[in-house]
Amino acid sequence: MSRAGLASRARDLGGRGAARAAAVLLLAAVAGAGGCGEGPRGPAAAASAPTAATRVVTDCAGAKVTLPATVGRIVTTAPGLTSLVIALGHGAALVGVSDQDPRTGALADLPRLPVYPSVPAESVAVLEPDLVLVDQVLSGRDAAALRARFPQTFVTDASQTLDRLRETFLRVADALGRPRLGQELATELDDARRRHRVAGRPRVLVLGQVEPLPPYAIGPRGLLGDMVASVGGENVAWDLGLPSGPIASEVVLARRPQWILHTGGTFPDALRTAWASVPAVAEGRIADVGADDFMQGGPRTARALARLAELLGGARAPR
Q1: Taking a C-beta distance cutoff of 8 angstroms, is the pair 21, 209 a contact?
Q2: Residue 52: pLDDT band with limits 50, 70, 90
Q3: Rounded distance, CA 51 to CA 47, Å?
Q4: pLDDT of residue 25
Q5: CA angle, 22 as apex, 88 and 80 as ends, to 5°?
Q6: Are residues 124 and 107 in the same domain?
Q7: Range of the domain at 212
Q8: Gap between the Cα atoms of 105 and 290, Å rounded
Q9: pLDDT at 316
Q10: What is the C-alpha to C-alpha distance for residues 199 and 284, in angstroms, rounded to an integer?
Q11: Which residues pair with 234 in a beta bridge?
């Protein structure tokens, strides 16, 4: 999702921290939100066959979803979900994607669905889907209305933690009848989490907003915060208490992060001056991690973990 779209969505989700941090929605867990782990786990528990023509699967909110035996028309509402459908071999079944998806390649001519302020049911209806994929963080509040109109609405949970992303792989793959491919994606993510580590537990400040000031930090509970922890970094906003929120310069100066990661834009000169004594600033270790691979949980997250470990293990940020 574009940063402008995320900022608008943040305002509607409420909370001053969320409203100010455009990139945080894809990175931060919604307090109290249920996850993939709350329903029955795995294909054996998630699927049954009440008739020859339909199957029942369990989505990441624990809801039972009845689907046709073969899913042939899919609508996605977030770019990460589009990438997942393609990785699971069902790209040809896409009949509509979000207005935030790239207009390139096979997606160039597909109908676009606006996702702010809500996913419009009428626009979905025109596409006659037999599976509608929504993200629990970005579109969770739309799920009930969509499900009432389209019982094939399937809630995913790819934006909160690596564990929930893994479960999303398995559940969506089960819904599409591709459990083997889902397991391959889960295994690739597991391997990346084991293999890609950085020595020395570097102190990392992750910023979801750098302008306007004050800067907003991302806490350890969101996807990018979980990625930092997975590769062995220490989030200096460990006690933020919120998915995101303002961080005082006094805290930054006291905790002396060795790396500053921000989710796009130009790091402001005002912060370079105010934080000149912080090792990350003094030693040139400020990096933009606003690319989709870091911002959106999906099939490329395993590779993003490898790049994150390489970045935090380096002496300076790449030019």
Answers
A1: yes
A2: low
A3: 12
A4: 41
A5: 5
A6: yes
A7: 3-29+197-312
A8: 22
A9: 72
A10: 19
A11: 203
Angle at 180 between CA 50 and CA 190, to 5 degrees: 125
Q: What is the pLDDT of residue 35?
A: 57
Domain CATH code at residue 252: 3.40.50.1980
Of 173, 172, 127, 116, nearest to 150 (Cα)? 127
Residue appearing with tokens 């990392």:
204
Higher pLDDT, 162 or 18: 162
Q: Are 222 and 30 in contact (CB under 8 A)?
A: no
Domain total for the chain?
2
Look at strands 112-113 and 216-218 and give their pairing.
unpaired
Q: How far lies 209's CA from each of 4, 226, 233, in Å?
A: 12, 18, 20
pLDDT in tens, 229-279: 999 999 999 998 877 899 999 999 999 999 999 987 889 999 999 999 999
Q: Are residues 89 and 125 in the same domain?
A: yes
Asked whether the beta carbons of 104 and 82 are under 8 A apart, the reply is no
Burial class (CB in 10 A: 0-12, 13-18, 19+), 71: buried
- Amino acid 268: pLDDT: 93
- Residue 5: the pLDDT is 47
